[in-house]
């Protein structure tokens, strides 16, 4: 019986530039942490795989109140 091997793809960390291996399947919006520099990243392209920093659109309640 043959072994099933986990397939992974490689992408460069935009923070430290080192290669990150991500197990397939890779999904758009998938969040990962760089094992080299701990940057919080997300998949922004799947073919080829491209990573970018996670941007949070979190607006605090105080900032929302100022708009009223």
If helices are DSSP runs of H or I spanning 4 or more residues, what is the number of helices?
1
Q: Classify the secondary structure makeup into a structural class.
A: mainly beta
The helix/strand order is EEEEEH
Q: What is the CA-CA span between the terminal residues?
A: 66 Å
What strand line-up does the widest sheet have? 3-4-5
Query: Strand-residue fraction?
Result: 35-45%
The profile of the biggest β sheet is: 3 strands, antiparallel
Gross morphology is: globular
Task: Please tell me about this protein's structure.
It is a single chain. This protein is mainly β and 68 residues long. It has a domain of 30 residues. The longest helix is centred in the C-terminal third of the chain and has 7 residues. It has one helix and five strands; from the N terminus they run βββββα. A hairpin with a 6-residue loop joins strand 1 and strand 2. The strands form two sheets. The chain has a three-stranded antiparallel beta sheet with strand order 3-4-5, with no helix packed on it. Strands 1-2 form a two-stranded antiparallel sheet. The model has no long low-confidence stretch (mean pLDDT 85). The chain is globular.
